[in-house]
Amino acid sequence: MLIGEVARHTGLSSRMLRHYDTLGLVRPTGRTSGGYREYSEADLERLMHVESLRSLGLSLREVGRALDEPGFAPDTLMDRLVEDTKARMAADAQLLARLQDVRGAGPSEWSAVLGVVSLLRAVESDNAAHRQTAAILAGEVRVSGESLADALLKEPDPNVAGALRWALAQRPGGIDRLSEGAADRDPAIRRRAVTALAAIEETAQVRSILEKLLDDSDPAVRRTAALTLGRRGATVAVDALVELIGAGDRDVEAAEILAGHEAHRERIVDLLVDRLGADPDAAVRSRLVQALAEIPGTAATSALQKYVCDSDQMVARTAIVILDRRPQD
């Protein structure tokens, strides 16, 4: 088969076939009676091998080595090609997100397009002040919640993160990104995710994510999830709030939230006493007594009376003072 026929059958240009010949990748081994080079079946098979390897992303030099060097191992090369492909996919995903943001902003002129692009770039600036300004402006422009969530999850500066949380709370979207962040291996990213979720209006999806975080390995994540769910009346957070009181971690706030759960006061009192009442640490029992002081009703009053004779004088005195000032149930 002559070069023109090969070009027609393979879709490769005659120029590319000659280039392969020059590099020694595919050299026609036959000759016609007129002296023209002719591709044999073996040549065409090698040509198909070259194109197959090129489709994987190999350079022409790498293709030649793969075909001609007996000791050439593909492992390292395949690893590199996989990483290169992942990098390209990540870059494409980032470009797609940016294009969707620009389209979502509904620009009618190129100047508006450039304005949105500049804003998105500013959110990713190395300068924290620029990022904060961009985040504030993003709350006024229709930048997608997904992009704001992505920026927030990687934002280390607390002031910028606060501006991004405010901007994110102004619009729907971004919950799926925050859900991914809430499951990240890095606790810092999970903290950013849960703090953002705490600032967003409650939905079934938001509550579900926060409930899963009640068992998170990071105390700060558990705390934020518990306090947020507790303020929203979720009884599933009661156990975690009791643990916060025991640990002295935002215990006053946790006690005030528990006191607001009117329908479950007796159960809450029982939990507090069962978990903390016999703790050998007097500081824990002191926090228990102060938490009981926040809860109206006979159950809390009865529990407080048990600590009037506590072995620790400070705990006992605190219980006496609280009972003395407590209105009659």
Automatic annotation (TrEMBL):
Sequence ranges assigned to domain HTH merR-type in this UniProt record: 1-69
Source organism superkingdom? Bacteria
List the InterPro entries hit by this protein, alphabetically: ARM-like, ARM-type_fold, DNA-bd_dom_put_sf, MerR-type_HTH_dom, MerR_fam, PBS_lyase_HEAT
**A single GO molecular function, which one?**
DNA binding
PROSITE patterns named among the record's database cross-references:
HTH_MERR_1, HTH_MERR_2
**Which segment of the chain is annotated as a signal peptide?**
none
Provide the alphabetized UniProt keywords: DNA-binding
Q: What is this protein called?
A: MerR family transcriptional regulator
Organism equals Gordonia lacunae
